[in-house]
Amino acid sequence: MFKHYLKVAWRNLKRAKIFAFINILGLSIGLTCSILILLFVKDELSFDQFHEKGQQIYRVTEKMTAKGETNEKSITGALEGPRFAQNVPGIKAYIRYQQAGTNIKKGNEVQSLRLFRTDPNFFDVFTFPLLAGNAAGCLKDPYSIVLSKDEAIRQFGTTDIIGKTVQLKDDSAFVPYRVTAVAANCPANSSIQFQALAPFRFSKAEEQNPENWFSSYLNTFILLDPSASKDQVQAQMQNYFAKDATGTFKAMLQKFGMAENAISLPEYHLQPFTRMHLDKNISSGNGIVPTGNITNAYILSAIALFILLIACINFINLTVARSIKRAKEIGVRKVVGSSKKQLISQFMGESLLLCLLAFVLALILTKAVLPLFNTLSNKSLSLSYLLDVRLILEFITLFMLTTFLAGFYPSVVLTKFDPTKILYNRFQVAGKNYFQKTLVVFQFVMAAFLVALTFVLYQQFNYITSADLGYDDSNLVSIEQYDVNSKGPLFTKLLSENPNVLEVSAKNAGQNSTIAKISSGTVMNFRQDLITPNYLTELKIPMTAGRNFSYSNPTDSIDKVLVNEAFAKEAGWRDPIGEKITFTTQDNKIMQVIGVVKNYHYNSMNEEVGPQVFEWEDLSKLNAYYIKIKPKATSAALSAIKNTFQQVYPLSPYSYNFVQDTNKFAYRDIEKWRQILFFGGLITVLISFMGLFGLSVLSSERRKKEIGIRKVYGASARSIIRLLTADYLKLVIIALVIATPLTVLAARKFLQTMLYRIPLSIQLFILPDLLVILLAFLTVYIQTRQTAGINPIRSLKNE
Predict the structure, then answer these.
(1) Residue 282 maps to a domain
(2) Which tens digits make up the pLDDT trace of 630-686?
(3) CA-based diameter of the chain, in Å?
(4) Which of 570, 508, 509, 565 is nearest to 542 (CA)?
(5) Overall domain count for the chain
(6) 149 with 183: CB under 8 angstroms?
(7) CB–CB of 91/224 below 8 Å?
(8) Could you tell me if 605 and 501 lie in one domain?
(9) CA-CA distances (angstroms) from residue 271 to 60, 84, 228, 292?
């Protein structure tokens, strides 16, 4: 019997190739999206689960309250690990981990190396297999190094390198480090990703200085005894810290001129290591992969689920649409004795065959689009993930669920046909097909929702990437170098002599924050930028009061500063010129304000412009260069910059960035979501139009004789097309009416996360709605035009 059903199913597929193709393609697209999202969710949930002692590992976090705002951060100082391990029962071991990138010299070539410093027992706590070397002793020597497999091959061409040396840059000189082990590459779902590991080198003075409790720059992990209670250990950590560090904390507040209640004593907490990746409340950094967001997984899962549902809806609509073609087959089977159960089994078998073909095609499509999906999701997923037993069970469940959703309703509908009416040619698909129409409305609600939301995200992304940042970032190249013996004056002099370079300025690399006291006695926290006098003029950042630093006034570099408008506002200054700032962290150095700089967005448009102070620093002490090049001489200018850099800094790796590209990179998350929603909307629209096509076929079959009678009585093809298309456009308009408020709510919620955002207006939804209506009309028009053109004699010859 099964073999018979299989033959019948295959013959029906061959007889209706177009319908079979649409069904299989629609289902395969829905299944592909589901498989990709399952891979994504599996990867997110499996982060750091491979460590054998993972359930006993915790990250030490630090919570502090200042000015009524509480902030919890993941970085600590150098003392937390050893002090807690020595004085708190239940802690078996500690690991400190810090990104300490350096340069590596290979022959005459200098390259950047993502080096991480850690403690010698790193491999005792974390499960990272070694391909060569001894895990227990590979990091005991201060000048030992462990390379990953990829880094070993990159440096030596092989992993058989135990005992060989590499030249790493320590301060201003390259020193040899001995390779003591080679580690397997870190799994893609690991929060810790390293190319090379070397041990920390702390002096006794650093280990004994109590102020290092409050110098946060590294990650601290602790390994608890299996019998220890996390809450008890956490409480004992805080008790010991309060006893050991409260005096130092108060002395530091007094030293920096801050009131005792200005900042609370830090509180230490233990964050489970295996939950670290999805804890969005505590950001990761300094060598730890950025945290994920389980909400993103939920959103992607919802999109995939809707796409799969829409694909199943298409299957139902197209199967029912073809029911008229198979009516006599069903009638004959019923007359010769086929039971309802047998007919349902037959149609479910056909559904199973279709879904099986769709599932095979989905696996092929998954492999084809996986690189694109990895780019969109910032992942490194591979089909090898499919070998997971749990995931295979999920795929089997997905397959069976899809088969049931797609095949059950059509099989029930088809088995209800009356054989008497069928065989006497009095059969028609009864009713108004409300269920099918409801399904199509649901399809277009999702399609319109995703299209409109994509359009809103596009407008927002375009707004923030083209908005005026308050400075000119066009044709601006940035270069950083960290040579202690800076040759900044020579480098800028040589560049300035090149005709394709318009101007060169410099500032400190990165973003530095500090505190200082103003004349009212208030202690302020602000961004501190060290610059050359021409930095502001090169970037076309205007002054709103006072003057800029001037080379004709060299004393400006000694005791003069500039502040931005945000600093003046927070300080409460009506006339900032002449005001004094006392830098309590720099031996109470007093600086005088000589100018006010107009606010500009030194960070992304997602952040407010905060207080900022500029100081004139000697060019030889700065390590970030900003080079303005001629607009139409990019290639020649970049070549000249590279040659000059390598001439002046032969022992430093060369790299550059266009500031405009760096600014756009800050919005990469918005861009990724815009692309994901675009593809989701595109797929949803594509599958929805397949469903609309199926419904139009159903209606055309049901109304074929009506159309023939209308044509006999003189109705034109145009009027018939208008009659048939009106029904479908009503469905689309109903869907748009439902989708619009949903889109407005979602768009408003998204835009509320943006500090600077576009206003919501009706214009944002008119264009995508018109696009959906136009495409729906064209989809239906193609089918109805063919039906309207049929000779009425063919439609009525059986009457």
Answers:
(1) no
(2) 998 999 999 999 999 999 988 888 889 999 998 888 888 778 777 887 888 788 888
(3) 107
(4) 565
(5) 4
(6) yes
(7) yes
(8) yes
(9) 6, 15, 15, 15
